[in-house]
């Protein structure tokens, strides 16, 4: 293994310090609102600091490194174009996110019940939780694979009779146990505070690591190698290279990113925890203006791997061609990171996994309990029983993720899997968006949008499986996955608008814009 | 200094230097911004703990919708 005793000591000390902090913070948690949204007392800098750690998960590190290795910095122009649209929309105008905070809802489906009806809350809560949980299923196993290669552990750790116990499974168990402990203790309060400290360690490590590795390679060599290996597609995403980005892909990504701001549980739980609506948009504004840099630093590790190892998989490595893109960077890091630094890097990776997994798992557990269980209860849970229900759900989900990891075998790039699941969630985003801004958006129209975003992507996925089963190549299918998802959004919006226009029943719309102004003014006085 | 004097492949035209400088400047700005976030976050942590110690818990603020209809938000939480 590539890990010295001193590295384990560094990892252990940092972990125990954070654990002690989590145990202390647990004593501050007194109500359901404290546990689920930090009592709505999170201010801008703390929210942003915790948000940074929440966004840099182990799976996103693996994904960014994969993108850097396979596509260079082609993503940069996408990030700029995306920023030009998203930053004014959400950061300056607070489109939707300020209204959501003003609704005082804790989750998306709760707002759905307030604006439409209870049955749609249950339906959207179920669909969103299902897609979110399915999406999360690959987090632990992909992260475990990245860590295994980095520490140089063997693929099979030991044998139990006929069964070879994989190192990935053991690492996955450790990652899930850690995330479970931190989420269990104190909920969102613990999460916000520990994420903030984890952010300091994660950012410090990646900047130091990036500086160190690029110094070893040389900036000129790094850049020239990137230009040589990928040509124009390394810096221009629409160059038309195989595996490159396209205009339709960009349009789909932008629409999906906008809709997810209205529907993705972990994002909205963060907004719900802010002290006032303006804080939600301000944190988005500042975060989006300065957030790209950290993505680029992590991507640079993948580019450095490309410069040092080349684009082809070396002989003799136990890794498939499909997963080589995501495994190249940990192989490179394993060879170039020295003692002590390896311990700090491992701690950062562990913390990045904990900070993202606990935020997401708490969000989906909250949604399962609040939106899929509570609506069926005649008498509400006591605060103690409510928190216990969320905690039990957290444990059940962790067991589910572990079992999924045991049978998981990658068949598509990480990002594509994550985005496929996100398309289902976007149906609720359409219902939220129109519900907040359009008086005539009706319950029947919202049902149509939510169902269209479930039925169409699932049908597309099944049709693709049948296509492949008949011996055709996936790339020869009638349309690209992003075209299918983009069309789904358009059809869902069309259904919502037409059905709402045809419906004459009064809606439960209320002017959240006025509530936003009142809350922002009240907080300023 | 070597990071400031880079030779780009002329075949890639405008995009290679543009992306290089965009990445480099953003990485530096993000690093500086992180320091600001850390300092600001410490003050916000003090506020959070103070607020949590002072507030009274609202047992109805648990995600339930108390009444339907327009203005339902008035019944939700803090």
General description of the model:
The complex is a heterodimer of chains A (525) and B (78). Chain A is built from 22 helices and two strands. Chain A is an all-alpha fold and 525 residues long. Chain A has a two-stranded antiparallel sheet with strand order 1-2. Helix content of chain B is 51%, strand content 0%. Chain B is elongated, with a radius of gyration of 25 Å. At the A-B interface, helix 2, helix 3, helix 5, helix 7 and helix 11 of A face helix 1 of B.
Find the count of extended strands of chain A (DSSP E, 2+ residues). 2
Morphology call of chain B? elongated
Query: What oligomeric state best describes the polypeptide chains here?
Result: heterodimer
In the predicted model, the low-confidence regions of chain B spanning at least 5 consecutive residues are 68-78
Distance between the termini of chain B: 54 Å
Query: Could you tell me how far the N terminus lies from the C terminus of chain A, measured between alpha carbons in angstroms?
Result: 59 Å
User: Can you count the beta strands of chain B?
Assistant: 0
Could you spell the SSE succession of chain B in H and E letters?
H
Helix count, DSSP H or I runs of 4 or more residues of chain A: 22
Structural class by helix and strand composition of chain B: mainly alpha
Q: Report mean pLDDT of chain B, rounded to a whole number.
A: 77
Treating each run of at least 4 consecutive H or I residues as one helix, how many helices of chain B?
Answer: 1
Largest sheet of chain B: none
Helix content of chain A: over 70%
């Amino acid at each position: 293994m590539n890990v010295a005793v001193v590295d384990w000591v560094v990892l252990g000390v940092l972990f125990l310090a954070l654990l002690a902090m989590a145990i202390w913070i647990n004593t501050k948690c007194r109500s359901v609102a404290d546990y689920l949204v930090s009592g709505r007392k999170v201010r801008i800098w703390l929210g942003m600091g915790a948000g940074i750690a929440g966004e840099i998960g182990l799976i996103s590190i693996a994904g960014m490194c994969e993108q850097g290795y396979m596509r260079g910095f082609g993503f940069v122009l996408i990030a700029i174009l995306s920023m030009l649209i998203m930053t004014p929309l959400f950061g300056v105008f607070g489109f939707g996110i300020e209204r959501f905070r003003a609704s005082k809802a804790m989750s998306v489906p709760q707002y759905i019940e307030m604006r439409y009806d209870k049955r749609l809350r249950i339906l959207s809560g179920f669909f969103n939780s299902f897609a979110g949980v399915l999406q999360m299923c690959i987090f632990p196993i992909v992260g475990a694979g990245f860590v295994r290669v980095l520490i140089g552990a063997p693929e099979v750790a030991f044998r139990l009779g006929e069964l070879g116990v994989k190192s990935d499974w053991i690492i996955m168990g450790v990652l899930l146990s850690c995330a479970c402990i931190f989420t269990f203790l104190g909920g969102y309060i613990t999460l916000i505070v520990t994420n903030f400290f984890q952010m300091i360690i994660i950012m410090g490590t990646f900047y130091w690591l990036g500086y160190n590795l690029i110094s070893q390679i040389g900036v000129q060599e790094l850049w020239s190698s990137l230009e040589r290996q990928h040509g124009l597609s390394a810096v221009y995403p629409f160059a038309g290279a195989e595996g490159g980005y396209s205009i339709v892909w960009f349009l789909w990504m932008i629409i999906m990113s906008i809709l997810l701001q209205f529907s993705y549980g972990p994002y909205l739980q963060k907004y719900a925890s802010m002290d006032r609506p303006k804080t939600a948009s301000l944190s988005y504004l500042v975060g989006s203006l300065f957030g790209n840099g950290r993505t680029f630093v992590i991507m640079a590790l993948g580019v450095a791997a490309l410069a040092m190892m080349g684009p082809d998989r070396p002989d003799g490595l136990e890794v498939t061609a499909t997963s080589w893109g995501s495994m190249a960077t940990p192989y490179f890091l394993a060879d170039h990171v020295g003692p002590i630094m390896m311990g700090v890097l491992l701690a950062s990776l562990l913390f990045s996994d904990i900070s993202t997994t606990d935020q997401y798992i708490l969000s989906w557990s909250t949604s399962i309990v609040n939106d899929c269980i509570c609506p069926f209860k005649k008498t509400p849970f006591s605060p103690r029983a409510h928190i216990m229900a969320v905690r039990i759900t957290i444990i059940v989900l962790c067991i589910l993720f572990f079992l999924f990891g045991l049978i998981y075998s990658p068949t598509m790039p990480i990002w594509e899997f994550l985005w496929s699941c996100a398309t289902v969630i976007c149906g609720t985003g359409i219902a939220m968006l129109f519900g907040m801004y359009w008086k005539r958006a009706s319950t029947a129209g919202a049902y149509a949008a939510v169902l269209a975003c479930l039925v169409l992507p699932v049908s597309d996925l099944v049709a693709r499986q049948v296509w492949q089963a008949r011996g055709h190549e996936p790339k020869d299918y009638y349309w690209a996955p992003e075209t299918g998802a983009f069309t789904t959004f358009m059809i869902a919006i069309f259904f919502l608008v037409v059905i709402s226009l045809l419906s004459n029943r009064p809606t439960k719309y209320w002017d959240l814009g006025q509530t936003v102004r009142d809350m922002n003014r009240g907080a300023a006085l | 200094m070597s990071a400031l004097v880079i030779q780009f492949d002329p075949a890639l035209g405008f995009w290679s230097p543009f992306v290089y400088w965009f990445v480099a400047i953003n990485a530096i700005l993000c690093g500086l911004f992180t320091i600001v976030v850390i300092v600001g976050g410490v003050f916000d942590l003090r506020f959070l703990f103070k607020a949590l110690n002072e507030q009274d818990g609202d047992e109805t603020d648990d995600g339930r919708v108390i009444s339907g209809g327009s203005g339902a938000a008035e019944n939700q939480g803090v």
